[in-house]
Amino acid sequence: MSKPREIARILKSRPTLEGAGVHLNRAFGYNEIPDFDPFLLLDDFRSDRPKDYLAGFPWHPHRGIETVTYMLEGTVEHGDSMGHAGSVDAGCVQWMTAGSGIIHQEMPKPVKGRMGGFQLWVNLPRKYKMMDPRYQEIRAEEIPTVTVQGGVSAKVICGTVAGVSGPVRDIMAEPEYLDVSLEPDAQFAHPVKPGYMAAVYVIGGSGRFDQRNNDDLMNRTMALFGKEGDSVDIHAGKNGVRFLFFSGKPLREPIAWGGPIVMNTQEELQQAFDEYGNGTFIKKAS
Ligand code: FE2
Fold first, then answer.
1. If you measure from the C-alpha of residue 220 to the centroid of ligand 1, how many angstroms do you get, rounded to a whole number?
2. pLDDT in tens, 111-122
3. Homologous superfamily of 7-248 in CATH?
4. Of 138, 142, 164, 276, which one has the greatest count of Cβ atoms within 10 A?
């Protein structure tokens, strides 16, 4: 018999200034480590004011992590030290494994006046922090939408819902990343592996995410589930609810975090910044 998990922590995303002056909302980040292990950060950059985001994220390095960009509207133009150039368009996902190092820029642009998306950071285990960089670029039509039961549909970016697996594969932390929509009063039960962290971020409507929590959680609210139990059990409010669902296997390794670089020790972090300063940061240029 399945035992649903209870919510251990609720966070409201908070206004944060990033990049060259982008106003976004951070659902969790540095202040919350290690609660969301293996995830490090979730930024919500939905905005209807271009001045909030047009400054973008000019050239900057990453090492030791994966960044996952999921766009709902608009686009992010992207270019990097490996010679990639392209865009992440509405409904698409870019799962970038920075590994030993990438220097890139990410510039959000409106389409028909609209822009919005999310960036999730997934930590890499110590033994893969210096792996070769790679991309999994997923077009909107490659992401399956699964109708689980009446009134529930889930876009499966990574993981499996009702026997349907998402297109992102071979990620070390064995994460799940779903975009789930529930119609009014619908219910969604989903299994979570023992010991894995699980969390949701509400992006529309409202709903109840455990049996205990009587208040419906609203847009821009993050809820972290406790580790006890083997499923989540979610009920939509009277206007329905849409949320991102994450789960993953905690790494339980030390974290040394400096801006866009996350290593295990201060020495590794210092080395990364030294290399960035002296032009030896990039280990694989194409
Ligand atoms: Fe970046």
1. 22
2. 999 999 999 999
3. Jelly Rolls (2.60.120.10)
4. 138
